[in-house]
Amino acid sequence: MIGAGQAGLSAAYHLRARGIAAGRGYLVLDSADAPGGAWQFRWPSLTLSTVNRIHDLPGLPFSEAVELTSREVTARIAVPAYFAAYERLFEIPVLRPVLVQSVANRGERLRVQTDRGTFSARGIINATGTWKTPFIPVYPGAQLFRGRQLHTSDYQGPDQFRGKHVVVVGGGISAIQLLDEISGVTTTLWVTRREPQFRAGPFDGEAGRAAVALVEQRVRAGLPPLSVVSVTGLPETPAIAAMRARGVLQRLPMFSEITEDGVRWSDGAEQKADVILWCTGFRSSLDHLAPLALREEGGGIRMDGRLATQVLRDPRIHLVGYGPSASTIGANRAGAAAAAELIATLGLG
C-alpha cells in the first residue's frame, strides 16, 4: 500500500480484518515523517468546527481516540493524533518516511522503487491523495508579477497579508474559508472561473449519493474526476451569510492575464494587487504510477469494481481517495471495497 491517510488506513484495516498478515502480507509506505496524512500540513486556523467533517475510521471512533474539550481544536493536531492512535491500536505496519518514486510492471509482480530501496508486490492499493500536487493554472504574465503568488497548500494564516491587497482565486470551500479570514485583516478581491453555486438547505444522503454518482460516472468512463464543489455546490452557512453582509462575496469573473502590478481582464480593466492566492485545488498524486500507463487519452484513468476503485487496465492496482472516494466517508467505503476486490483478484481469499 502507498499512503497512510484516511483511505490508506481504512484499506489497511480491512486487509487485516480479512486475514492478510501485517508486514509479510502487506506493508504501508508513507512519505510523511509522522502519522496524519495531509491533515498535518493544513493551515493553523483550520479547526474541527470549520472542516467539512471528520469521519470515523472503521473500528475506532474519533471520540474514543482523542479527548476534545472544544470543537475549536486545531485540525492539524487533532486528526494526526487520531491517526497515530489508530495505527498503534491495529498495529498497522507503516514504514516512513518513504518516497515512492515509481511503480513498474514486472510480469506477475510489480516493482516499487523508493528512496529507501526496491519493493516487490503482487498488488497495490494506492492512497496518495492530492495534497502533494497543488494545481495552479497557467495565465499569461504570471512570471512578470512583482508581488507574491501562493497556493492554498502554502497558506499559514491571514496575518502575513495585513496591509496588502489580496486577489483570491477559486470557487471551492477552501477559497471561501481563506477569503473570510483574509478579508478580516485587509482588502480582498474574489475571482472565479465559473459563477459560484450556493446550495440552500441540508446536504442529505440523497444529495450526497447523487453527487458521488456523477463523479463515479466520469471515472468509469476514463475521464478526469470533477472537483467536489462542481457537483455539490457551496453550502449556505452563517459564515457565508456574514461574508455576504460584509460585501466580501462580490465575485468577479476570471481575469485574462497577470501584469507586473496585478491582474487584467479581457475588456482592459485592471486591478492592482500585492498577492495572488490560488485556491484552485489539487490533482491526484499519481506520477509514480506513470510507468504503468494507466491513463486514457482524455487524461483520466478508467475505473472498475463495486465502488470504482479498481483500475480497468490493471486490476492489481486500486486507487482509493480518487474520484468518488475522494472524501473522508468515501475513503472508508472505498478502503473496504478495494481490500476485498484485491484479495479476490490475487486469489488470497
At CATH level 2, the architecture of the largest domain is: 3-Layer(bba) Sandwich
Strand percentage: 15-25%
Number of strands: 19
Q: Largest beta sheet, briefly?
A: 5 strands, parallel
Strand order of the largest sheet: 7-16-8-9-12
Which structural class should the secondary elements be placed in?
alpha/beta
Q: Which shape, going by the Cα principal axes?
A: globular
Portion in helices: 25-40%
Helical stretch count?
Answer: 8
Total domain modules: 2
Radius of gyration: 21 Å
The CATH class of the largest domain is identified as Alpha Beta
Give start-end ranges of low-pLDDT stretches. Answer: none
Write structural notes for this entry.
The chain is of the alpha/beta class and 349 residues long. It has two domains: 6-131 and 282-345, FAD/NAD(P)-binding domain, CATH 3.50.50; 142-197 and 233-278, 3-Layer(bba) Sandwich (FAD/NAD(P)-binding domain), CATH 3.50.50. Helix content is 26%, strand content 18%. It has helices at residues 6-17, 62-65, 75-89, 173-183, 205-220, 228-232, 238-246, 328-345, and strands at residues 28-29, 94-95, 100-106, 109-114, 117-121, 124-126, 148-151, 166-169, 188-192, 198-199, 234-235, 252-253, 257-258, 262-264, 270-272, 275-278, 303-304, 310-311, 317-319. The strands form seven sheets. A five-stranded parallel β-sheet has the order 7-16-8-9-12, covered by helices on one side. A three-stranded antiparallel β-sheet has the order 3-4-5, with no helix packed on it. It has a three-stranded antiparallel β-sheet with strand order 13-14-15, with no helix packed on it. A hairpin with a 5-residue loop joins strand 17 and strand 18. Helix 1 packs across helix 8. The longest helix has 18 residues, at 328-345. It is globular. The protein starts with 5 loop residues before the first helix and ends with a helix. The model has no long low-confidence stretch (mean pLDDT 92).
